[in-house]
Design goal:
The structure holds two protein chains of two kinds. Chain A is an all-alpha fold. Chain A contains six helices and no strands. Helix content of chain A is 74%, strand content 0%. Chain B is mainly α. In chain B, 69% of the residues lie in helices and 2% in strands. Chain B has 13 helices and two strands. Classes of the chains: A mainly alpha, B mainly alpha.
């Protein structure tokens, strides 16, 4: 019962703050609302018993990536005059792509309707122990996990390489 | 059953809250006394015997001062900044185990299975308090202080997190309660992971913005850093959250590396006293002694070492501590493989 109320509350917060990200005039406000959105989504993870995922979501997105976003936006100190004007072409393109995205989302939501909830009752389903067992099992996600970690390493090395001033 | 559980947890949370604030208040007094001792002065001695009422006098002064908000600042964010700083500072202590259970009641507000990650999450949110406050002041010194703070905290968070991976590797858990429990049987983790402890110690100086890493509030360059425009209790919150963070990092270091509430020769003591509330009390006092030692260490370093230059700070974080912590993880893995703890 409590979790249902929490779900409605968190959903309201996440939808409202996501809308405010788009509608805020001040870019710093947009970033702060985006942080709020990430927090409410982490709250949804906690409701789904995925504690590890929720906490990592907070640490990585709210704690690290958004700090860098905020850092850059504060450094730039954007004003209204700096805003690039939008042409008619870009407005039409944005409308079409947004409409297509909405079509996909509606189609996905329709196919979910009537499905059984995949969440198990156990509160330990999302604990680190269970997650580790699934990720590192031989017949589980070991290979995709290792490949994606190599991808991350490659992108990290690439970022360091590109940020060097002189490339020999 | 549920209501008694809730009442106990509620009382524990209140107690942790009161202890954090009380220790932080007297840490300000302690800092001035330690500074006075190191500089061959007397320090505060007017308010009460030995100046013991000084923190209360300071608190009253903070409350009574004019609460000034700069004209061109962002009013809402200006208030939000110190609030976030104080809230996140007080949130860390809930996962710390204070003593072994009394009558089956754990003396820990919550023992979540992601305790270590929780601490990191709270620490990583804490930087917003400084950033938002510094930006909302609409002052170039505040903004520079906020930018320095955010880049410094992000840089040192990485080395801090990586240094703890080796602790997770040897203990096999992320719950602080279990990590402390494991150390009652064998050695304290500091003997198994001295390098990890050293990295964690240096990083916690940087995370609490204490000297020699106090560049965000570097008074010779930035007036007062991110809290230049703050006055009254808002400034008090910023200054106070630093002391609460010191207390918290002392508690985390003591429980991760120095056996938490465990006494040396824990099993011998447990036999002598018996598993009852007296043992828990002794453990609590001993744990407190460890925390106070770390708080003293923070002050000792502050009044001994000069401040880093900005490039030295970044070099230390990215080129020394980060590779060292990765090396520590690899070495721990190799050692665990050789000794047959993992296949």
């Amino acid at each position: 019962m409590i979790s249902q109320y929490l779900f409605y509350f968190l959903s309201f917060v996440s939808v409202m703050s996501a809308l405010m990200v788009v509608f805020s005039k001040n870019p710093v406000y947009s970033v702060l609302f985006l942080i709020l959105t990430f927090f409410s989504i982490a709250g949804h993870y906690f409701l789904l018993n995925a504690q590890f995922l929720g906490m990592v979501h907070i640490i990585v997105y709210a704690g690290a990536i958004m700090v860098l976003f905020l850092y850059v936006i504060m450094m730039l100190n954007l004003n209204k005059e700096d805003e690039p004007g939008t042409t008619t072409m870009s407005k039409i393109a944005a409308t079409i792509s947004g409409g297509i995205l909405m079509l996909v989302l509606v189609a996905a939501t329709r196919s979910v309707h009537g499905m059984e909830s995949p969440v198990a009752d156990s509160s330990q389903i999302g604990s680190i122990e269970n997650l580790g067992k699934v990720l590192f099992a031989e017949n589980g996600f070991l290979l995709p996990f290792e490949i994606s970690s190599i991808l991350f390493l490659a992108s990290m090395v690439g970022a360091v390489f590109l940020s060097k001033k002189e490339i020999r | 059953m549920l209501s008694s559980f809730l009442i106990i947890k509620f009382l524990l949370a209140i107690a942790v809250f009161a202890i954090s604030l009380g220790v932080a208040a007297y840490a300000t007094y302690g800092e001035r006394k330690v500074a006075a001792f190191m500089q061959d002065r007397i320090g505060p001695d007017r308010a009460g015997p030995f100046g013991l009422l000084q923190p209360i006098a300071d608190g009253v002064k903070m409350f009574m001062k004019e609460d000034f908000v700069p004209a061109n600042s962002n009013k809402f964010l200006f208030v939000l900044g110190p609030s976030i700083a104080m809230t996140t500072a007080l949130m860390t202590a809930v996962v710390v185990p204070w003593a072994s259970p009394v009558n089956g009641v754990a003396l820990q507000v919550t023992d979540i299975n992601i305790g270590l990650l929780y601490v990191f999450g709270v620490v990583s949110i804490g930087v917003y308090g400084i950033m938002i406050g510094g930006w909302a002041s609409n002052n170039k010194y505040s903004l520079l202080g906020a930018l320095r703070a955010s880049s410094q905290m992000i840089s040192y968070e990485i080395a801090m997190g990586l240094s703890l991976i080796s602790i997770v590797m040897i203990t096999g858990t992320m719950s602080l309660g279990k990590i402390v429990e494991q150390q009652s049987l064998g050695y304290w983790n500091v003997f198994l992971q001295p390098l990890a402890f050293l990295i964690f110690l240096i990083c916690s100086f940087a995370e609490t913005n204490r000297a020699p890493f106090d560049l965000p509030e570097c008074e010779t360059e930035l007036v007062g850093g991110y809290h230049t425009e703050y006055s009254s209790m808002k400034l008090g919150f910023y200054l106070f959250s630093e002391y609460v963070n010191m207390f918290n990092s002392g508690a985390i270091m003591a429980s991760l590396f120095f056996g938490g509430y465990n006494l040396p020769f824990a099993s011998y003591f447990a036999q002598m006293v018996g598993q009852n509330w007296i043992l828990s009390l002794i453990q609590f006092l001993f744990f407190f002694g460890k925390i106070l030692f770390f708080i003293f260490l923070f002050m000792w370093v502050r009044w001994t070492l000069p401040r880093f230059r900005y490039d030295q700070l970044m070099t230390l974080g990215w080129k020394i501590l980060l590779p060292l912590s990765i090396l520590n993880i690899v070495a721990t893995g190799i050692f665990m493989y050789m000794s047959g703890q993992i296949q």
